[in-house]
Structures are given as structure tokens and as C-alpha cells.
Task: inverse folding
């Protein structure tokens, strides 16, 4: 991960030196030659570090430091002081600068300081990511046995070098969050943070402030300025789970971020530039929502540059046994229990069950079984009895839509073949003209 | 906020059939349960006071007609609440069940309910509703409803 640096310095030669050294190290650096411009710049773009000379015409470095720290407490500031003016350096540190450098300077020393700040920033971002992430380990093994899951992995591999937004569809618990992580960590942005947010678990106001952050005093309770996840995810990826639950007004705001690559904090007046890859997910049939006007079509197209459908576990039963073994191993270790296998009867029970909660349900069933089991293998008695008593059948709305689309595509092809003669097409398809009309008018 | 499962069932004697499955699933998925009990219009029609209500309504006394309807709904709610309390205890559901009563047909009750209630993760249809193709046509339902729908059935009964 790299950090973004702004240099505020009026001495051209110093700027040149710094630019040269920092860019060679891979940092993205912008420079201005006075304090007022610096203040303007930090309002427009998200910087992680400001390096400011204490002596500048107009607004001096200390005033700039004061204002920046007031407005953007998370931004780090390094002050450049003249040789021997240790007192002003101490002053700067008291006002919130992380460090100071003295002129004439030693570039290696500066790089050391900045690299240290970069590492701290990365940790901060990752901690934040951890808090909001789905609790999946970055290097968690993924069970891929079925042809269908192999296909999903193939698609992920094929977009490794593309930076497109992705829409993940599939029922609850099929592994959309896990796939989102995989896409991020196998992609171009793997060194930058991966952040996740579930759009269903917040009220509209809270979600807005989580996403966009807010300025101090933007609303009651906004006692300090806060960076939103879009800002923190700068250069990285933001995973928006359950995107379909987002309110229309937030959808409009998000669309703006995708279109203009900039946003404003709640209560803010200055747009901030960001570069974020969006990975969105939903377990709903977003087509129904789009045609009902509940989800913006333009936003849908922006997010759906790449569409990955993860099939439910009941359609890839080959995954059930390896997944169960994988979870057993993990949970037995966690519970410190010596359970080494799953009895035939138990596997049979699992294999014939519908799993509306998909992989998550299977994982939790095994977790509980491990706690309950007293023998060295999972027996049916420690599995939920209701899965034997009841039979469930799930209908994945995304899947149905796909079938509809398939019939429409096919009917259109046949129609083309018979030069648009609907009666002939209907006859060939073995359906009535009305049914043909219904299939063709399917949106 | 936790995920929420919606259990849709027909109000009446065996409304809790399938509930044990939903309760267990909720426990497994660490989700909450909402319940939508739909009373058939016919059940209501059987009530004598509907007649009275209609008479009042026809006479233009809408308030009175509405009062009678409300009263009936309240009576239904009270009865349902009692049963639900028993259910919560039986299935050891930590939080109270968030339940809703509608007098309507199932598809429109469900549609209307989903419009005003976000955050429902999965819709589970009770066994008696699931097997009643007349009442619920899943193929039609999924054209309008964007969320996953799960039907519950009891093979032991089906086989009998
Ligand atoms: N192929 C797999 N191998 C190993 N673990 C898996 C696999 N698929 C899913 N899981 C695990 O199953 C659980 C559920 O997955 P995840 O949270 O990614 O699902 P989801 O589709 O995002 O669910 P939701 O729609 O409810 O947010 C996670 O703990 C995940 O690690």
C-alpha cells in the first residue's frame, strides 16, 4: 500500500529533491508552494501525509498545521524547519505534527520517517478493514470441488488484471463475501485495503456517514470529523454487501462517486477525489428491483461491469462433503476436541438436505455438532433434527430470472430463423402464440 | 442488526406447523424471526359481525364498520399473541418474535409487507401454504418478489 503525500514548500529546489526521492520510492506526491493552496488541496483530495515548511509566504507552516489537524485529524503532518530551530520543531510536535525534518536534509533519513508513517497508516487501515470485514482470514483456504465453483474461480482469475467493478449475486451464505475478498487479494489492488460494509444493517443516516464520513457538526452527534469508508478505501476496494437495501437517495450519491470519482463528506462542501474499486453483492433479484424502479438502472450498470453468480450449495452437492470436512477440522481445532470424521449416516443427512442458508448454514451446523458430539466422529444425534423432519426447497430469484432470459434468447433465435413469423416460431417451439408472446415480452 | 427470516403462515389452527424448522434455522444462522400470519378472508367472513359491519358500511357509517373490523382484528391478534408466547418458550427463542397479522390473500399480504419491511433475508413458506398451489403460485410470486423464497414441507405427512 502506498500513501498520498502533499508537499507545501516555497523553495523550488527543496520540492524537487523531495519529489525525486519520494516518487522513486513509489509514493504519489503532489506539491503546492504556499499554505493557502495546501489547505485548499487537502479539502479536494484525500491525502495521508502533509509535509509543510514552517516558513512560507502567507500562511505559515504552523498555522497550516493547526488548521489541517482541526479539519482532518487523521492526516499526518511533518514540519520542515530551518537548521537549528529546534524550538519551533518542538512547537510543531506539540500542535500535532508526527515528526519534523531539518534543512538541509538527509534524504535517507526522511524516507525512513515516511516509510514508518506509511506502515502505521497501513496498519490503521487494515485494522479498520478488519473491524468492518466479514471476519474472513485473508489467506483462508477455499474449498473448490464442484465444476460450478471451479468456474467461479476461473472467472476471478480471468479478471485478475482488470480493475472493473463487480456485482456478485447468489443466495445468502453462498460465499459472496469470501469471493469479494478473493477478487481483491488476487487483483491489482492487493497491497491496498479491502473494506466491507453491509448496507442492510444501518439506518440511512448511519449508512451515509459510514460511507461518506462527515464533517464536524454535520449533525447532532457529529462532534468530530470522520472519514468514511469510501475515503479510507482510497486505492483499495470497497465491498458493499446487500447493495439492494440501499435507499434511493444513497444510490444516487453512490452513483456520483462511481461516475465522477469524487464525493463529499456529509455536511461537507468540498468534493474529495478518490480511486476505489467497488465490489457489490446481493442475494436479491436485482432485475426485479430495477424494473420496479427500486434500484437505479444506471447504478446497476456501473456496478455490474462484471457479474459473477455463485450457485447455491444444493446445486453443487459435491462441495458438501469437502466443505463439511474443512469446517470440522477448523472447528475441532478451535474447540480443542478430537473429532476426526463424520459418520456415513450424518453425511447422508447433510447430502439430502436443502441448505437455504447455504455454506454459512453448513458451517454453523458443523460448529454446533462439534460442541455437542461426545464420540470421535459427528453422529446424526448432534445434527439438528429438523433437517430430517422437514424438507425445504429454495427458489433462487436470480436463477429463475436467468432461466427466463434463456428461454427469451432461444425464442428470439427461433424467430429470427423463421424470419419473424410468429406462428411458425410458436409451432417450432411447440407452444401457443400467446406463450411465445409472453416469453418474448419478458423483461 | 442481525439477519431476519420471515415465516409466512396461514392464521388458524396449524399456523405453527413448520415453525420448529424456522426456529432451528434462525438459531443456526444467528438470525431473528419475523412472522407474517395471513388470515383468509373466508375465515373472517365466517364471523357474524362482518355482516353487521357490511350493513353499517352500506349505511355510510364507516367508522362503525371499521371499529367492528378493528375489534375483530384485535381479537385475532390477542389469540395469536398467546400462541406465539407459548411458541417462544417452546422453541427457546431469545428475542420476541416480531409478528404481523394480515387479512388478505397470501401474495398481496406478502408483497405489501415486504414493501414496508426492509432487511428480510429469506422468506419461508409454511408447509400448509406450500402445498396449497391455489393459494400460492410460486412462479408468479418470484416475478414480483426479489428475495429468496423457501418452501417447507413435511415428507412424513406428504407420504401418508
Ligand atoms: N468455498 C468455500 N470454502 C470455504 N469456506 C466457504 C466457502 N464458501 C463459503 N464459505 C464460508 O461460508 C461462510 C459464508 O460465506 P459468506 O459470508 O462469504 O457468504 P455471503 O454469500 O456473503 O453471505 P450473505 O449473503 O449472507 O452476506 C463464511 O464463513 C465463508 O468463509
Result:
Amino acid at each position: 500500500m502506498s500513501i498520498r503525500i502533499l508537499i507545501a514548500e516555497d523553495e523550488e529546489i527543496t520540492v524537487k529533491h523531495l519529489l525525486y526521492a519520494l516518487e522513486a520510492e513509489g509514493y504519489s506526491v503532489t506539491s503546492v508552494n504556499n499554505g493557502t493552496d495546501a489547505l485548499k488541496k487537502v479539502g479536494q483530495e484525500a491525502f495521508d501525509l502533509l509535509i509543510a515548511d514552517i516558513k512560507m509566504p502567507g500562511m505559515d507552516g504552523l498555522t497550516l498545521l493547526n488548521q489541517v489537524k482541526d479539519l482532518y485529524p487523521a492526516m499526518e503532518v511533518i514540519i520542515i524547519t530551518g537548521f537549528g530551530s529546534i524550538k519551533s520543531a518542538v512547537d510543531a510536535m506539540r500542535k500535532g505534527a508526527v515528526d519534523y525534518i531539518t534543512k538541509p536534509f538527509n534524504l535517507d533519513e526522511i524516507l525512513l520517517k515516511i516509510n514508518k508513517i506509511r506502515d502505521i497508516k497501513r496498519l490503521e487501515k487494515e485494522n479498520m478493514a478488519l473491524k468492518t470485514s466479514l471476519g474472513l482470514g485473508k489467506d483462508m483456504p477455499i474449498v473448490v470441488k464442484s465444476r460450478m465453483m471451479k468456474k467461479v474461480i476461473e472467472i476471478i482469475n480471468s479478471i485478475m488484471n482488470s480493475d472493473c467493478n463487480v456485482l456478485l449475486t447468489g443466495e445468502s451464505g453462498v460465499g459472496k463475501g469470501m469471493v469479494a475478498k478473493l477478487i481483491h487479494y488476487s487483483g491489482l489492488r492487493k497491497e491496498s485495503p479491502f473494506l466491507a460494509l453491509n448496507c442492510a444493517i444501518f439506518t440511512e443516516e448511519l449508512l451515509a456517514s459510514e460511507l461518506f464520513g462527515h464533517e464536524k457538526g454535520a449533525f447532532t452527534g457529529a462532534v468530530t470529523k470522520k472519514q468514511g469508508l469510501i475515503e479510507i478505501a482510497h486505492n483499495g476496494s470497497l465491498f458493499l454487501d446487500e447493495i439492494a437495501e440501499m435507499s434511493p437517495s444513497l444510490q444516487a450519491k453512490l452513483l456520483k462517486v462511481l461516475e465522477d470519482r469524487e464525493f463529499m463528506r456529509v455536511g461537507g462542501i468540498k468534493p474529495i477525489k478518490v480511486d476505489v474499486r467497488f465490489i457489490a453483492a446481493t442475494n436479491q433479484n436485482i432485475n426485479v428491483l430495477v424494473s420496479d424502479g427500486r434500484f437505479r438502472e444506471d447504478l446497476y450498470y456501473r456496478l455490474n461491469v462484471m457479474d459473477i453468480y455463485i450457485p447455491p450449495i444444493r446445486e453443487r452437492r459435491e462441495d458438501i462433503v469437502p466443505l463439511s470436512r474443512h469446517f470440522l477440522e477448523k472447528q475441532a481445532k478451535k474447540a480443542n476436541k478430537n473429532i476426526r470424521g463424520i459418520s456415513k449416516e450424518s453425511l447422508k443427512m447433510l447430502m439430502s438436505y436443502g441448505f437455504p442458508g447455504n455454506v454459512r448454514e453448513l458451517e454453523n451446523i458443523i460448529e454446533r455438532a462439534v460442541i455437542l458430539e461426545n464420540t470421535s466422529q459427528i453422529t446424526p444425534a448432534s445434527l439438528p433434527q429438523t433437517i430430517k423432519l422437514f424438507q425445504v426447497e429454495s427458489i433462487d430469484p436470480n436463477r429463475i430470472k436467468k432461466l427466463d432470459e434463456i428461454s427469451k434468447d432461444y425464442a428470439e433465435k427461433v424467430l429470427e430463423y423463421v424470419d419473424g413469423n410468429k406462428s411458425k416460431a410458436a409451432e417450432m417451439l411447440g407452444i401457443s402464440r400467446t406463450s411465445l408472446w409472453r416469453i418474448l415480452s419478458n423483461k | 442488526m442481525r439477519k431476519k427470516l420471515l415465516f409466512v403462515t396461514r392464521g388458524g389452527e396449524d399456523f405453527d406447523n413448520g415453525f420448529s424448522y424456522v426456529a432451528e434455522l434462525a438459531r443456526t444462522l444467528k438470525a431473528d424471526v419475523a412472522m407474517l400470519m395471513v388470515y383468509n378472508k373466508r375465515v373472517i367472513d365466517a364471523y357474524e359481525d362482518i355482516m353487521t359491519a357490511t350493513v353499517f358500511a352500506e349505511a355510510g357509517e364507516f367508522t362503525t364498520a371499521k371499529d367492528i373490523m378493528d375489534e375483530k382484528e384485535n381479537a385475532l391478534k390477542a389469540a395469536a399473541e398467546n400462541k406465539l408466547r407459548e411458541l417462544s418458550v417452546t422453541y427457546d427463542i431469545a428475542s420476541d418474535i416480531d409478528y404481523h397479522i394480515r387479512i388478505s390473500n397470501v401474495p398481496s399480504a406478502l408483497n405489501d409487507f415486504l414493501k414496508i419491511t426492509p432487511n428480510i433475508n429469506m422468506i419461508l413458506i409454511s408447509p400448509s401454504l406450500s402445498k396449497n398451489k391455489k393459494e400460492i403460485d410460486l412462479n408468479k410470486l418470484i416475478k414480483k418478489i426479489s428475495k429468496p423464497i423457501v418452501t417447507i414441507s413435511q415428507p412424513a405427512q406428504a407420504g401418508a
Observations:
- Residues 130-138 of chain A have pLDDT under 50 and may be disordered.
